[in-house]
Amino acid sequence: MQGALRSLRLHGNVIKNAMLQHIRVMNPATLPTVFSRFESVSSARLEEHGFESTTIRDIMKAKGKSADGSWLWCTTDDSVYDAVKSMTQHNVGALVVVKPGEDKAIAGIVTERDYLRKIIVQGRSSKSTKVGDIMTEENKLITVTPDTKVLRAMQLMTDNRIRHIPVIDNNGMIGMVSIGDVVRAVVSEHREELNRLNAYIQGGY
């Protein structure tokens, strides 16, 4: 994931440098027009449409409730076998774990990695082991809020070597995003920024 993060940052720098080079090779007579166009855009507009503006909230809106695997859950008393079966059926890599009989109070999350490291590698039985025995407990979770910037979320996931991160607000957990969600959002943001820079040059603003 460190490599992916470096690649995306490099991609953003390449875009910026390419656009600056485009300006340098233009006819000098056109430069005042170009720069006046840049200067006419307010700082608020640039901030609104600049790099690194996408938030976790944007990702969750794009995914929609029907595609949001965060609402798939199991309990601490379920077998690991049943939890992994649910992940496979719904094509997700993690489940929210709740405490049985406590109105779905969050206990933690369980992931494919937990299954591989704590069941397969250790030769344990997935049918006789409870999810609560292998899950990442709530007090150890790395989390983000809906307003967290996407690149910040990617950095947290990279630094902590995790592929899924819960999203919380004042009322508790409201969703979960994966490293795939984050990477797609960053790539999309850089692509949109390139289009905006082209529009500036071509007179679209």
Average pLDDT works out at: 76
Shape: elongated
Q: What is the CATH domain class?
A: Alpha Beta
| Strand proportion | 15-25%
Number of domains: 1
Pfam families: CBS (PF00571)
Keywords: CBS domain
Protein name: (wild Malaysian banana) hypothetical protein
InterPro entries: CBS_dom, CBS_dom_sf, CBSX3_CBS_dom, Diverse_CBS-Domain
Question: How is this structure best described in words?
Answer:
The chain has helices spanning 2-24, 31-40, 43-49, 56-63, 80-90, 112-120, 150-159, 179-202, and strands at 73-75, 94-99, 105-111, 136-137, 164-169, 172-178. The protein is α+β, with helices and mostly antiparallel strands. It has a single domain (56-202), classed as CBS-domain (Roll). It has a 4-stranded mixed β-sheet with strand order 1-2-3-4. The protein has a two-stranded antiparallel ribbon with strand order 5-6. α1 runs parallel beside α8 and α7 packs antiparallel against α8.
